[in-house]
Design goal:
This protein is of the alpha/beta class. It is built from 11 helices and 12 strands. Helix 2 links the parallel strand 2 and strand 3. The structure holds buta-2,3-dien-1-yl trihydrogen diphosphate and iron/sulfur cluster. The site of iron/sulfur cluster has 15 residues, from helix 1, helix 4 and helix 8.
Length: 316
């Protein structure tokens, strides 16, 4: 039986960013340096395949510092942690390594600087996400107000509209954030903030690539996890850019082949925490069923790399 023809538009950049790469390396190097078990507070990055692989090597994933023994090293995930968590680890005299992405740490530093200048902060982010919890946790309770939508901006109750600054989560939708920032600047003309927002290069580039391919695709699959903010944003961006069938899949096994019946073109991308082997797996699953032509669509080149912390680079 001849297979139907299908064009796969492969977005570039896709998948791992520099912060994810560094965070995973930190866990691997910690296991080499200190042996198993090494504790990791929260999923090091939001990907089950990555987490399962590290667990097989001896990493133990927990949600709270209290769940870590005092005599084993603990690593903080790429998404960042509230200041109180670092302080508590230090108080307990634990060995800890902070795998917070440097681009998240940069936002933490911005927030602290504005606070020192006497400004109340507004954070644009998603409630309950670990990065939002970590960034808000850089300042005392009540000093950072969260807004998630343009509607929230109209409702937010600030101390003094003349003494305000904003920061954002790094993995937001670029287009939605433009609207929220515009609403903030309209309601609070004196608000201080970054030139645009704090969305990172990886989030921006992956969204741009999706915007480019989505209008030409009958369907678009984002390889990524349901708890991965940047991956979920890619699905939304694809739908907004005109691809009605855009879905998040963790593995090839999750592809709904019946829903894809009759399609001629599929876009494929991956969130910043999804390893390339999973994209290969998805492409292979298409090759099993279709006569596939892969077209790579490159909208940017990335050469960002972050160093691992000195404590892991120095010989034990
Ligand atoms: O999927 P991730 O682990 O995290 P979110 O997109 O949910 O923030 O990707 C790494 C991004 C960071 C920080
Ligand atoms: Fe850092 Fe951006 Fe990657 Fe998050 S998505 S780890 S902020 S580079």
């Amino acid at each position: 039986m001849t297979k139907p023809a299908l064009t796969l538009y492969l977005a570039a950049p896709r998948g791992f960013c520099a912060g994810v790469d560094r965070a995973i390396k930190i866990v691997e190097m910690a296991l080499e340096k200190w042996g198993a078990p090494v504790f990791v507070r929260h999923e090091i990055v939001h990907n089950k395949f990555v987490v399962d692989g590290l667990r097989d090597k001896g990493a133990v994933f927990v949600e709270e510092l209290e769940d870590c023994p005092l005599d084993r090293p603990v690593i903080f995930s790429a998404h960042g942690v509230p200041k109180a968590v670092l302080a508590e680890a230090a108080r307990r005299e634990m060995i800890y390594v902070d795998a917070t992405c440097p681009l998240v740490s940069k936002v933490h530093i911005e927030a602290a600087r504005h606070h020192e200048n006497g400004l109340q902060m507004i954070m644009i982010g998603h409630a309950g996400h670990p990065e939002t919890i970590g960034t808000m946790g850089q300042l005392p309770e009540g000093e950072v107000l969260l807004v998630e939508t343009v509607e929230d901006v109209a409702r937010v109750d600030v101390r003094d509209p003349e003494k305000l600054a904003f920061v954002t989560q790094t993995t937001l939708s670029v287009d939605d954030t433009v609207d929220i920032v515009a609403a903030l600047r309209a309601r609070f003309p004196a608000i201080v903030g970054p030139h645009k927002e704090d969305i990172c290069y990886a989030t921006t580039n992956r969204q741009d690539a999706v915007k480019t391919i989505a209008p030409d695709c009958d369907a678009l699959l984002v390889v990524g996890a349901p708890n991965s903010s940047n991956s979920k944003r890619l699905v939304e961006v694809a739908r907004k850019a005109g691809c009605d069938y855009a879905q998040l899949v963790q593995r090839a096994a999750e592809i709904d082949w019946r829903a894809l019946d009759g399609i001629r073109s599929v876009g494929i991308t991956a969130g910043a925490s999804a390893p390339e082997v999973l994209i290969d797996e998805v492409i292979d699953a298409f090759r099993d069923r279709y006569d596939v032509t892969v077209e790579m669509v490159e909208t940017a080149r990335e050469n960002v790399e972050f160093k691992v912390p000195r404590v892991l680079r120095e010989p034990a």
